[in-house]
Write a structure and sequence with these properties.
Length: 124
Amino acid sequence: MSVEARLSWHPGQCHCGAVRFCFSSDLTKGVRCNCSYCVRKAALHHRVTAERFVLKSGADELSVYRFGTLRANHYFCRHCGIHTHCNPRSAPEQVNVNLNCVGEVATAGRAIEVSAYDGRSWLA
């Protein structure tokens, strides 16, 4: 079976619903980063290519936060403050979806293999 055949589309949104997105993935793995920002926002990242991420609504409701190298774009809803996705500094052309915004993961307890990423030491 091809990789594309195993992928399905998954919807996600911020807390208030102003920002909605979907992404195509097999949705089996997530990553917790220990960098200073990710620890504070408590995101569970899942990386997809830009072609597999669609911002369905709320582009005007998003704010962006950049720090350090200014390579990463961290997007969050300007109304409820929830981090929905980012373009990570390690791969700015890709999208890290916050799986905590995906209902089938956050509320249904879908089994996700979670690994750690040492973002604190990334530049070292």
